[in-house]
Specification:
It is a single chain. The chain is an alpha/beta fold and 184 residues long. The chain has one domain: Rossmann fold. 35% of the residues lie in helices and 22% in strands. The strands form two sheets. It has a five-stranded parallel sheet, with helices on both faces. Strands 4-5 form a two-stranded antiparallel ribbon. Helix 2 packs across helix 3. It is globular.
Length: 184
């Protein structure tokens, strides 16, 4: 049994990435697998209070700072607890939507999801498969003006999520069921 985290970042509740993410999960995974859905719309944007709390040592956090970091901690625990992430990534103005960026900002935390070593940075979210479902109204995946895939590949890898597969929803790149089952 696998545990899957489905991240929906489209501001439209009926969107291509949401539909394709649902289809991907229905076709690829077994009925006994656990799917946790997280709608990223409405996540708060980090601010100065969050930054101060984030950089305060755990043993010095005030009650208010614990409250400020509570959602971030919950989102990190969600990612840590799953085997697979399915990220719906629509293209907004050649990049990712603010909801997906807010989620990334809330989970990208030093000493929690990455750390710095003498050899450089090290991601701490390892051994997870990531499927990114890409869809756009006119920006082809891989175009020189498309910033979704390079950004997501970089930030996810920075966090230790290096087993990433991009699915081009614009080209209906959803293989048949027998091909899906063979994907590692």
């Amino acid at each position: 049994m696998k545990k899957i985290l489905q991240l929906n970042s489209s501001s439209q509740h009926i969107s291509k990435t949401r539909k394709l993410s649902d289809l991907w999960i229905d076709q690829l995974f077994d009925k006994g697998d656990v799917v946790v859905q997280r709608d990223l719309t409405g996540l708060p944007i980090i601010n100065g209070d969050w930054m101060v709390a984030n950089y305060t040592p755990d043993n010095e956090l005030t009650v208010e700072q614990h409250r400020i970091l509570e959602l971030s901690n919950q989102l990190i625990e969600e990612v840590q607890s799953v085997d697979i992430l399915v990220i719906g990534a629509p293209v907004y103005n050649f990049g990712i939507p603010v909801a997906l960026k807010a989620w990334i900002d809330l989970i990208a935390r030093a000493k929690k999801t990455f750390r710095y070593t003498e050899e450089g940075s090290e991601g701490l979210l390892m051994n997870k498969k990531v499927y990114v479902i890409y869809a756009s109204g006119g920006t082809p995946m891989g175009a020189d003006y498309e910033f979704v895939t390079p950004y997501l590949r970089h930030i996810l890898s920075f966090l230790g999520l290096t087993d990433i597969q991009f699915i081009d929803g614009n080209n209906n790149q959803l293989p048949e069921l027998n091909q899906l089952k063979s994907v590692s």
